[in-house]
Amino acid sequence: MSRDTISLIITQCLGLPPLYPHPTIPLSAHYALNIFYHAQKSAPFILCPQRSRRPVLIAFRRTLILLLLCSASDVEVNTGPACPQAPSFVDFCDRKNLGIMHVNIRSLLPKFVLLTALAHSANPDVLAVSESWLRKATKNSEISIPNYNIFRQDRTAKGGGVAVYCRDSLQSNVILSRSIPKQFELLIKKITLSRNKSLTVAACYRPPSAPSCALDTICELIAPHLASEFVLLGDLNWDMLNTPAVLQSKLDALNLTQIIKEPTRYNPKSVNKGTLIDVILTNWPYKYTSAVFNQDLSDHCLIACIRYGSAIKRPPLITVKRSLKHFCKEAFLIHLARVSWKDIDLIPSVEDAWSFFKSNFLTILDKHAPFKKCRTKNRYSPLFTPDLTAIDQHKNILWRTAIASNSPRDMQLFREVRNQYTQSVRKAKASFFREKFTKNLQKVLGHCKVHGEQEHLLPAAHCTEAR
Fold first, then answer.
1. CA 304 – CA 291 distance, rounded (Å)
2. How many Cα atoms within 13 Å fall on the side-chain side of residue 15?
């Protein structure tokens, strides 16, 4: 049977276009089609009755599909774009799945306000910080972000350290925390995603001067946790654009893949000279989409990834405050006057006297202004106005343009907008706290001024009773 006959059969029986303009059929497929054709009746398919031709057509279709798949050597198992587009910062903020971020902050305390603004704008589920430079004397309350739980591993000496902020709606616990002087800091925690799914997240920082044995120790510590889904974030101070052979062999042995492909630290004097030392390593890379964002916290870029899977249902943000809807000033003062406040002078202990005053006062206050739960918008940094947000987005666009074009002019334009954004943030921060301080000071002075006139606000009968 000739190739023309095969083309005729495919065209008339299967409704496919003829094979004349296409490359010739491989010899193996041509040979198999010949065997299949001669095994059937001598008459062509088009001359067979409809009933007897149908089973032959079904078998022929299946055989043809198998032969075409076998002859194609580049069949993709998971079809789709070869290189998915990296999400933008807006895409990360508007995501519906689990979002993870990492930043090398180089001293957390002085930049805590900016980190809080970043957490509230990007809304990550997990925010890892390396080079926190925290000491044991620093309390968690000084660096806590609302609606996040903080886990940290500080270095005993100066510098280094890692910290992980995890959303309080996620059930998480620390399973390993280790710090070896002059080698690394490692923090591993387990996050429960559902009843039968969990995610192990690790944060690690390795200084440039660490000995070669630090890599072996890190691999030994994380190896027992690779049975399930695992993600390692941090700064290892190895350029992953030119991965050392020793490191690559260790990653291959642990089945870990680096999903960050762009440089994360650029040379200020040369745009095209950058290193990739911030990593996101995972044993399930097909579940994640990564991105690199510019930020003003340090000279490192912000790296992030989105985990695709079932969407995480986020609970609403609930705040508790006193309701003054049915508050009556006169009734409140009358109830205060009925309390025998002169008994405080008879209590010898200061702590007991304070407890007496506090319990009586709060009991009356709870009756007239009870607590109420309210849903609030996800905006915790009022100093970040829409103008600052617009400048920040414009700065990020210029950053991507400068990196793509590799033009000194675009980089200079980015630096000008970056400096403008930094100055605007400082001015907004100073103005915000100055206004808050002025208002609070006026309230304090007003309370002090009214304190001497407080007795005139009480009804006359009850004032006499109180005296």
1. 5
2. 1
Token pair for 352:
């007991």
Query: Is the pLDDT reported for residue 108 higher than 60?
Result: yes
Within 10 Å of residue 410's Cβ, how many Cβ atoms? 18
User: Residue length, the chain?
Assistant: 467
Q: Are 185 and 204 in contact (CB under 8 A)?
A: yes
Written as one letter, the residue type at 169 is: S
Which sequence spans correspond to the domains of the chain? 3-71, 89-307, 319-375, 382-467
Neighbours of 139 (CB within 10 A): 9
pTM score: 0.60
d(CA 199, CA 195): 12
Among 28-42, 77-91, 148-162, 400-414, top mean pLDDT goes to 148-162
Tokens, residue 154: 């500080």
Tell me the two tokens of residue 325: 């809807």
* Superfamily per CATH, domain 89-307: Endonuclease/exonuclease/phosphatase (3.60.10.10)
Q: Which amino acid is at 154?
A: D
> Left if phi > 0, otherwise alpha if psi is -120 to 50, otherwise beta: which for 371?
beta
Region 31-60: mean pLDDT is 55
What's the average model confidence in pLDDT over 196-224?
A: 94
Residue 379 CB-density burial (10 A; 0-12 exposed, 13-18 middle, 19+ buried): exposed
Kindly report the average pLDDT of the chain as a whole number: 80
| DSSP label at residue 414 | H
- Tell me the C-alpha to C-alpha distance, in Å, between residue 423 and each of 135, 384, 418, 426: 29, 13, 9, 5
CA distance 66 to 29: 10
**DSSP string spanning 296-308?**
SSSSSPEEEEEE-
Contact 288, 302 (CB under 8 A): no
**Pairwise pLDDT comparison (333 vs 10), residue with the higher score:** 333
What is the rounded average pLDDT of the residues 436-447? 69
3-state secondary structure at position 152: strand
Tell me the two tokens of residue 86: 């990296």
The predicted-structure confidence for 302-347, as pLDDT tens digits, reads as follows 999 999 876 666 566 677 889 988 899 999 999 999 999 999 999 9
Q: Which helix (H) or strand (E) holds 271?
A: strand 270-275
Residue identified by tokens 């006062």 is 361
* CB proximity list for 229: less than 8 A, separation 6 or greater: 197, 198, 199, 200, 282, 283, 284, 287
- C-alpha–C-alpha distance, residues 392 and 381, integer Å: 15
Under the banding of pLDDT at 50, 70 and 90, the label for residue 25 is very low
What is the rounded radius of gyration, in angstroms, for the C-alpha atoms of the chain?
34
Q: Which residue has the tokens 């944060």?
A: 203
